[in-house]
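If I may wish for something, please walk me through the protein I am sending here so I can picture the backbone:
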Amino acid sequence: MTPAGALVTLFVVFPFFWIIAISFTDRSLLGASALHPQFVGLKNYLDLFDPATFRSLGGFGPSLWLTIQFVVLSALCGQVLLGLVLAWISRELSPRMKSVLQGIVMLAWILPDVVVGFAWFAYLDRDAGTLNQLLRGLHVPAADFLIEHPFLTICAFNAWRGAAFSMMLFDAALQSIPPSYLETADVVGASGWQKLRDIVLPLIRGHIVTDLILITMWTFNVFTPFLLTAGGPSFETDILPIYTYRIAFKSFEFGKGAAIGVIVMLINLAFSLVYLRLAQRGLRKKGKAA
């Protein structure tokens, strides 16, 4: 346990407390504060929530609201739902076709970010992109998606990128359901939707909660959309990870960037506590029913 504990302390515990400490200073990359940062207390946090600038374009408020929408659309309505649908479809396929489907979906998850970014640039290009070529074939006007619909584009990109994890998690959950449950439902004439609603979803509630927790935290911290839009145009895709990067590594305000990181950590913690409370409540109801 000692080597593992040392690695966790060095790369997880120490950076965790170091970021919190920096968030209370004016540390920067340039100037006197780079070598001798001063303790400023809650100034960085108060600046982020300053009513005069909180809602200004490119500020913390719009970025936070944009990130919440991004999480809801791309993670909760995208990755989780798409992963569940793919897992449900794959259970009806032959073992060979199921392996092919899962392999194709997994490619989106395991490919390096830079490769995926260039692939989507090629796919979405206005003049020679694959998507616009397909639209022209259907006599639909081409569009510059990264300029005209940047937010929806990064939502679709993130849902496509992360659906593989949800698919594998739900596939394992579906395999844990006793076949006799679904066979009995078939005998009484239950439809696919009825089996999903009344049998499958209640039995995999714990897996759904686990997936929601992990996907939410990952999406709140995902930086990959930067490869497509760099936060633009006009801050329309300036989600919190990109905003943090801009403040810390473009404006060189490390203290303020660390404060944003701490706030994101607290948001993730709040989501986790809510999901766990809902899961515990569901387990209590299930125990009482038993």
Summary: DSSP finds 15 helices and no strands in the chain. The chain has one domain: 2-289. The first helix runs from residue 2 to 22. The two ends are 40 Å apart (CA to CA).
